[in-house]
């Protein structure tokens, strides 16, 4: 017997959902045949057979499983498969230590509505089914508002944020950056390329030359208290088109020419709208840019993605009045933030890094 396990598909997801099995129980399969499709918070992954055999699913479709769980088996013969099923069917049911057992649907329903053990025992049943709990809920006359389930994508955001706050001692720096010249150049560049060009398209390009000067901003803190620097600058950029937050990664090759970076970001925005990211789109980032440019957003304190050292945040374009040659004039600026891993980077280093970005933005034409 060969077990089929859920492989690790990225650094963040610890669980996934069985979207579909592509084989019937008892069906003969060959090495390389498609067995199942699983869905993570970010993408769908196909699992192929590693050997010839007869297929048997161990979980149902739509089930949530953890990375490393057995979801199916392959048997050399049908006789071996049937013997396995008979043995499993004859195994005695395991009752909960509380004196009852919940069906899969009932367990999910009980967790959703927070039934206490006392309430469940009050049913006086060895096996509690969904119908029993629905009746119990009706009798309780529950007045609470119905809970709203979080999307898989938002659950993954929750896990990433929790891991960041729990494991990365971060510091934060905020700078004022004047951007009139940059905004004019971005508009001209957008007209030339016939695409929208904003901070998310060009700021990653401006980071590439800084790798050699500021290596500690591009890499990750290691368990042995060393630092692993990045070889290439792959920049994650936050994208939220209303279907959830994603951080697709602009690869180093895309950042060598601003035209290619604009093209790649346009493609990522369409993928965000359609929720059609591939796993490779979201991997290998070494630093991240958080875009928060909605009107009146003064500044944002971003997290640091686990496995990275820093995240840069961009706030909304603001305006102020200044005296220019004795006359009142309007000037535009943004707040540029930097959250950095204080185990690796100290304040002086962070100030130098953010100052270099500020200089590039305020002298944008020369920087490009």
TrEMBL record:
Its cofactor is (R)-lipoate. Residues 123-153 form a coiled coil. Keywords: Acyltransferase, Coiled coil, Lipoyl, Transferase. Its EC number is 2.3.1.-. InterPro entries: 2-oxoA_DH_lipoyl-BS, 2-oxoacid_DH_actylTfrase, 2-oxoacid_DH_E2_comp, Biotin_lipoyl, CAT-like_dom_sf, Single_hybrid_motif. Belongs to the 2-oxoacid dehydrogenase family. This is Dihydrolipoamide acetyltransferase component of pyruvate dehydrogenase complex.
């Amino acid at each position: 017997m060969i077990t089929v396990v859920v492989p690790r598909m990225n650094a963040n997801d610890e669980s996934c959902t069985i979207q579909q099995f592509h084989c019937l129980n008892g069906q003969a399969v060959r090495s390389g045949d498609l067995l199942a499709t699983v869905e993570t918070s970010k993408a769908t992954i196909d699992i192929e057979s590693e050997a010839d055999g007869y297929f048997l699913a161990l979980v149902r479709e739509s089930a949530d499983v953890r990375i490393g769980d057995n979801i199916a088996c392959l048997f050399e013969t049908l006789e071996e498969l049937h013997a396995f099923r008979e043995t499993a069917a004859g195994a005695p049911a395991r009752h909960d230590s509380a004196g009852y057992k919940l069906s899969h649907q009932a367990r999910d329903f009980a967790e959703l509505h927070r039934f206490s053990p006392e309430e469940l025992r009050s049913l006086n049943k060895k096996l509690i089914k969904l119908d029993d709990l629905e009746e119990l809920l009706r009798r309780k006359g529950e007045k609470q508002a119905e809970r709203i389930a979080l999307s898989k994508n938002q659950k993954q955001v929750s896990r990433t944020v929790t891991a960041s706050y729990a494991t990365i001692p971060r510091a934060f720096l905020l700078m004022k950056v004047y951007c009139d010249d940059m905004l004019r150049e971005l508009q001209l560049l957008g007209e030339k390329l016939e695409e929208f060009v904003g901070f998310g398209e060009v700021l990653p390009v401006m980071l590439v030359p800084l790798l050699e000067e500021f290596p500690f901003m591009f890499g990750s803190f290691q368990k042995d208290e060393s630092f692993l620097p990045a070889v290439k600058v792959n920049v994650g950029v936050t994208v939220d088109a209303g279907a959830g937050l994603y951080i697709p990664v602009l690869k180093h090759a895309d950042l060598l020419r601003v035209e290619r970076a604009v093209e790649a970001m346009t493609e990522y925005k369409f993928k965000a709208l359609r929720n059609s990211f591939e796993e490779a789109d979201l991997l290998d980032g070494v630093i991240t840019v958080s875009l928060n440019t909605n009107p009146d957003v003064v500044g944002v304190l971003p997290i640091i993605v686990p496995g990275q050292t820093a995240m840069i945040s961009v706030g909304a374009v603001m305006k102020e009045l200044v005296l220019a040659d004795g006359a009142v004039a309007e000037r535009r600026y943004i707040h540029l933030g930097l959250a950095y891993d204080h185990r690796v980077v100290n304040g002086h280093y962070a100030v130098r890094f953010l100052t270099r970005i500020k200089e590039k933005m305020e002298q944008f034409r020369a920087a490009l």
